[in-house]
Amino acid sequence: MFDPALLPPELASAGDALAAHIEEAGLNAAQPSEQLLYDGWLLRHCPGKARRARSVNAIADGRIELQAKIDRCRHFYAQARLPCLFRITPFSRPAGLDQALAQRGFAAEDETRVMTLALGGALRPADRQLREVGIDEFAQRAGELRGSSAQQVAAHAARLAASSPLLKARRLALVEGGRVIAVGQSVQEFDLVGLYDIVTAEGARNRGVAASLTTQLLRRASEDRAAVAYLQVSADNIAARHVYRKLGFVDRYAYWYRTEPGVPQPLAA
Q1: How would you list the strands of the sheet with 228-234, edge to edge?
Q2: Tell me: the pLDDT tens digits for 152-194?
Q3: Strands, E, within 71-178: which ranges?
Q4: Which residues contact 9 (CB under 8 A, 6 or more apart)?
Q5: pLDDT digits over 88-139, tens only?
Q6: Among 48, 81, 95, 115, which is least packed by CB within 10 angstroms?
Q7: Which residues have a Cβ under 8 Å from the Cβ of 93 and sit 6 or more positions away?
């Protein structure tokens, strides 16, 4: 748990136009089929590990009274046999949503930083064996590296397949000794490119593998004329944040989750 009031003000500002565009691009990058729009809120209910795919994204004010609306969401997620989970960003609407959830006992947790990098500089060529993979293999390899269940792997693959075909996606596997030891993907929307699902085998960490894979995703995005890259990383993932900072990424904004009181939460991904 953490206190959102302690966040640096610049990470919680709703006035950053580029951050607002990135937030929309992040929602577009992976669209589960299990979602519906309810009075300005996007209710995602995919039964996987990823919290982004099984939470309320409050993207517009709507017209229904706030407390009644929260109650309706709790009922909806109970029907879906999922905890009622809200994803809170600087752009969540209405503006008092986070406070209202706190007053209802929803706990704040899982602080995540969205980091950005302006592209345009030269990036070194690949120094490790890489290959592009399709959706099914990517989900399978990522699941193996994470220790995901078969149901979670299937949900991940379905979520990727449901994304708009007009978004340019690249999925890379890094191979060492004939074995995939890391995967990562990029999803480009106009001049923005998001990096997702960068996962390294436990025994291959702290050897520059993630940095090498990330660099090649950025290199390809730059060739595809992307101007700004972004990624989402847990605020307490010190090792990953160190890698991304060395590549030039900086914190742009933060988001977190409000979890339903008294309901056990599955592990985040």
Answers
A1: 35-38, 41-44, 56-58, 85-88, 250-259, 107-118, 228-234, 192-200, 179-189, 168-176, 129-132
A2: 899 889 889 988 889 999 999 999 998 999 999 999 999 999 9
A3: 85-88, 107-118, 129-132, 168-176
A4: none
A5: 999 999 999 999 999 999 999 999 999 999 998 767 776 788 999 999 999 9
A6: 81
A7: 40, 58, 59, 60, 61, 62
Whether the model pTM is above 0.70: yes
Report CA torsion sign: 232, 47, 107, 38: positive
Q: Are 33 and 162 in contact (CB under 8 A)?
A: yes
Q: Based on the number of CB atoms within 10 Å of its own CB, is 264 exposed (0-12), middle (13-18) or buried (19 or more)?
A: exposed
Say which amino acid occupies 137: E
Size of the chain in residues: 269
Residue listed under structure tokens 């996987």: 48
Q: Are strands 85-88 and 228-234 parallel, antiparallel or unpaired?
A: unpaired
Please choose, from the candidates 267, 252, 259, the residue with its C-alpha nearest in 3D space to the C-alpha of residue 87. Answer: 259
Angle of helix 238-246 relative to helix 209-223, nearest 10 degrees, comes to: 50
Token duo for residue 223: 């060739």
Q: Which two tokens stand for residue 265?
A: 């939460």
Query: Looking at the domain that runs over 118-254, which CATH code has it been given?
Result: 3.40.630.30
Q: Where in the chain is the domain with CATH 3.40.630.30?
A: 118-254
Contact of 118 with 252, CB cutoff 8 Å: no
Helix axes 150-161, 135-146, angle to 10 degrees: 140
Token pair for 215: 């660099």
Token pair of 226 as six digits? 């992307």
Q: Please give the Cα distance from 69 to 38 (Å, whole number).
A: 9
